[in-house]
Amino acid sequence: xxxxxxxxxxxxxxxxxxxxxxxxxxxxxxxxxxxxxxxxxxxxxxxxxxxxxxxxxxxxxxxxxxxxxxxxxxxxxxxxxxxxxxxxxxxxxxxxxxxxxxxxxxxxxxxxxxxxxxxxxxxxxxxxxxxxxxxxxxxxxxxxxxxxxxxxxxxxxxxxxxxxxxxxxxxxxxxxxxxxxxxxxxxxxxxxxxxxxxxxxxxxxxxxxxxxxxxxxxxxxxxxxxxxxxxxxxxxxxxxxxxxxxxxxxxxxxxxxxxxxxxxxxxxxxxxxxxxxxxxxxxxxxxxxxxxxxxxxxxxxxxxxxxxxxxxxxxxxxxxxxxxxxxxxxxxxxxxxxxxxxxxxxxxxxxxxxxxxxxxxxxxxxxxxxxxxxxxxxxxxxxxxxxxxxxxxxxxxxxxxxxxxxxxxxxxxxxxxxxxxxxxxxxxxxxxxxxxxxxxxxxxxxxxxxxxxxxxxxxxxxxxxxx
Length: 467
What we know:
By secondary structure, the chain is of the alpha/beta class. The chain has 14 helices and 24 strands.
């Protein structure tokens, strides 16, 4: 008889999500983790990074209080961030969530085992001297920041997001290598709190080169540049050189060679799966050349019977909410149920910058590449009453739909578009017609009216839509 129904290796969103879901189905579960409960997302990634972004928003609003008729005794630009206090608040948010997660696992009777989990030749899990037998194993060991040759991470002058999301000091000048989600979110934070920021991306499109519609990414690039970020695309970067005042970073773009002197370099070129040291080869679990575990896209089963893999260790979008969905599908597979397969072409994405970026489904470029017959409509927040009230009118809702057919994609940039995405995610995944979405009443005044307006325009009639 097995010790457990399921043993989960990894305590991040995928791992603890699988443990909680399995326990709610009445299964006996062990969660093995040699890292902080909650993983990178909760301790060093999603949660602390978004806490810093919220701090930046509060500071930005305080500095613009005069725009709303609120006149303090001193110049509102006098507001500044006390970074030690910011760090304490972020730590408090994380600690509360970690504590709550631990309590929930205990309530569900999940046995949490601290230690390094490793598969043996039979697909069972060893933790130190202890051997755990189970019906099934789920691998969810997550990812770690990628590195660049010549950029030795020391946690002080050369850092990754693991350091910046929980640090208690601010550099005066920083260079961020990588214009993806991690890079632009930290560029947004640093721009708001007064750090001299340079963003360098190897691809020609410097800001969010992969993911959202190009027109949407350009709005964010312009917004960052307006707030003082030096944005450089197509940049080849050389290893940093120490100077009397910091680090010199030489680069080359299509416009020529240049250099920037900074106090710190943030390497934000993406993340790699953590799959070494898990005994995968001995158990017959296949991985690809980049270290990702090979799985069946529907069941999440690996090449070893009874072993499943989810989250950042498989080649799917590295998002906590995707890992949650994969956790559900894996447990359903173990239970012998028909799993709710993840449609990776219609996953919701959010970038929590200022302004925010959010999207689901195809971009205009992807629709063209697929040679589809489609229409594109846009509604800018400059014409939205709530956006004017907020004083945040940059951005738009851009909708791509099949000609006389269903929605293909919705891409947005602007205030709180992260909270507008759910409606569009449902509409795209249910293959709704734009006119069907436009027929629903959107409250006034609200940012969601921008969605209703652009959807209604596909019918050939409209209210405030002006093309």
